[in-house]
Design brief:
Length: 351
């Protein structure tokens, strides 16, 4: 019979967690990863991180002994961020005082795609390590498990909180949304068939690391001249979007989605330390897309994250026309394209 200690050494779990794209954007935070406004996103499917976490006996007296590998090689920089995350949140991990942790992480999307991977990475890390804690405590992995994983993921990267659920997820306290919380995201389940099976083609306009990180971007909202109005607008829009998703109002969705993307970048451009992340290709793609929508009367729209890449959103029913347009009409604007779609949330890959 294996002793408890040996059992703990054999623990190895693997989780896959998808990325997500925000429709209403989280931009600005306070305290310990508390968002200044609520946000709502679409969970993706093909863009994900896989994390294998394994425990072994400690060989040093560090408070947290972590070996972090990204795609087979030691990743010093992200490893340090993860080690700090583990140390700051050690109450979630009762094994951390005694055990060394090895994490092997990999992304489904190319390293240089310019896709922000912190949401899927912190999502998968949180799920894997919380899974180990739950198993040791003999706790069932029910709804509360995902809520706690969302809370933990938020502490690593705010947008990661929303990757725990299928399709549409909302994060941040909002008077008009029942059960909404600053601590964790919730699933938005009342979705009109119009918004089921949404597709997201990610046009990689530039694949260099961005000049200004999201953390710096968030901090620039602290003394931003338009901050208060922006936070108010985003809260109102989140509640409005819940209703749009319920009623199937595609026109309102398109308008809100595009306005959110441009407002996010307007916040960057109007910060005291102003900066610009869009590139010529971003603007050309947006203009061509708007023209295509007008001429063909097809419900397709764009959004942006904190970078130059363009996310093209459209219902699956229109994939033929939109994808032909992306492959031909937009071809000069991007380096590569990743075709993604609404996903079902995280999955555990071994038992
Ligand atoms: C523009 O979640 O990357 O993508 O909490 O500092 O890790 P941290 O920030 P992060 O910010 C995401 C910003 C955004 C909008 C969004 O996803 O809501």
């Amino acid at each position: 019979m294996e002793t408890d200690k040996e059992l703990m050494n054999n623990v190895k779990v693997t989780w896959r967690c998808p990325s997500n794209i925000a429709i209403v954007k989280y931009w600005g935070k306070k305290g310990i990863q508390i968002p200044c406004n609520s946000s709502l996103s679409l969970t993706l499917s093909n863009s994900f991180t896989e994390v294998e976490a394994q425990l072994s006996d400690k060989t040093t007296d560090e408070a947290v002994q972590l070996s972090y590998f990204f795609e087979g090689a030691v990743n010093e920089k992200f490893g340090q961020r993860v080690a700090k995350f583990l140390e700051d949140n050690r109450e979630f991990f009762p094994f951390i005082a005694e055990k060394a942790i090895t994490i092997n992480s990999s992304n489904s999307f190319p390293h240089s795609a310019g896709i922000a991977s912190s949401a899927s990475a912190f999502g998968a890390i949180s799920l894997a390590l919380l899974d180990i804690s739950y198993s040791m405590e003999g706790k069932e992995k029910d709804e509360a498990f995902y809520r706690e994983a969302s809370n933990l993921a938020r502490l690593g990267s705010g947008s990661a909180s929303r990757s725990m659920y299928p399709a549409f997820a909302q994060w941040g306290e909002n008077d008009k949304i029942q059960h909404s919380s600053n601590q964790y995201a919730i699933e938005i389940t009342d979705i009109h068939p119009t918004f089921r099976n949404m597709k997201d083609a990610i046009l990689i306009i530039e694949d260099e690391p961005k000049k200004v990180s999201s953390s710096v971007g968030h901090s620039l909202m602290n003394n931003h001249p338009y901050a208060e109005n922006r936070f108010k607008q985003a809260n109102e829009r989140t509640a409005e979007l819940v209703n749009i998703l319920k009623t199937g109002d595609m026109e309102a969705f398109i308008h809100m989605c595009e306005s959110e993307a441009l407002t996010l970048h307007a916040m960057m451009m109007t910060s005291m330390d102003y900066y610009l992340l869009v590139k010529p290709g971003t603007i050309t793609a947006i203009e061509k897309l708007m023209e295509f929508r007008k001429e063909n009367n097809i419900p397709v729209c764009f959004t942006l994250d904190a970078g130059p890449n363009v996310h093209v959103l459209y219902p699956k029913a229109y994939e033929k026309q939109v994808e032909a347009f992306i492959n031909n009409g937009l071809r000069d604007t991007y380096k590569k394209v990743i075709f993604d779609q609404e996903g079902n949330g995280p999955t555990k890959l071994n038992s």
